[in-house]
Design a protein that fits this description.
By secondary structure, this protein is mainly alpha-helical. The protein has helices spanning 20-23, 25-32, 35-42, 47-74, 77-104, 114-126, 131-151, 160-165, 169-184, 190-211. Belongs to the TenA family.
């Protein structure tokens, strides 16, 4: 994405982030009602494809942890608590991935696939944007994840534990906290960063389908 420089003398129209999905319904549906999610719900996703996605998602969470730590360091005071809480949750999530990998016999040090590397590049570019843009991006990432896995409920028996893990009430509360933080610091171009993140999410699901 292009690095945006914000003119401090210019008033940035505030777009509540909760309105962004309805402003971009087709990309949003593609990200949250993806065939991969349907296959997890129906039990038709091959185990190897799910495992490929799981390993790459663990790599992404590691990248997200680093991005969020950098964002916390420059975020305004009202946003710091939710970001700090999210960092603790991401550390716990990485431990959970390690447990799942041990159970399923997966190597979390497997090669990073191009889609995962591209997403890491996007996070790196977000470091150079205004704080509002970075917060909107983070909210988009987590809101997409929550809505996507909610659409996969209850999940086929072999994947139900994963679906329940990613749709627990505490996660929904965290996403709500990120919404408040993002709304408190309007992005320079909320629509642009929203659509770019959503496209990255679609590509990540596509990667899992292609692995089948």
């Amino acid at each position: 994405m292009a690095v945006t420089t914000v003119d401090p003398t210019r008033t940035v129209p505030a777009v509540p982030v909760a309105e962004l999905p309805s402003r971009h319904p087709d990309p949003w549906r593609a990200a949250t009602r993806h065939p991969f999610l349907d296959a997890v719900r129906d039990g038709t996703v091959p185990a190897a494809a799910f495992d490929t996605w799981l390993v790459q998602d663990a790599r992404f969470v590691s990248d997200l942890l680093a991005f969020q730590a950098r964002l916390l360091a420059r975020a305004p005071r009202p946003a710091q608590a939710v970001l700090a809480g999210g960092l603790v949750a991401l550390v716990d999530e990485l431990s959970w991935f390690e447990e799942q990998a041990a159970v399923r016999g997966l190597d979390l040090d497997a090669a990073v696939l191009p889609v995962t590397a591209a997403y890491a590049g996007l996070l790196g570019r977000l470091d150079a944007t205004d704080v509002g843009t970075a917060l909107t991006a983070l909210w988009t990432i987590e809101r997409t994840y929550l809505d996507a896995w909610s659409a996969a409920r209850p999940g086929a028996p072999e994947y139900r534990g994963f679906v329940e893990h990613w749709t627990q009430p505490g996660f929904a509360g965290y996403v709500a906290g990120l919404e408040a933080a993002a709304d408190g610091v309007p992005a320079a171009d909320a629509d642009a960063v929203f659509t770019e993140v959503v496209a990255a999410e679609v590509a990540f699901w596509d990667m899992a389908v292609e692995a089948a």
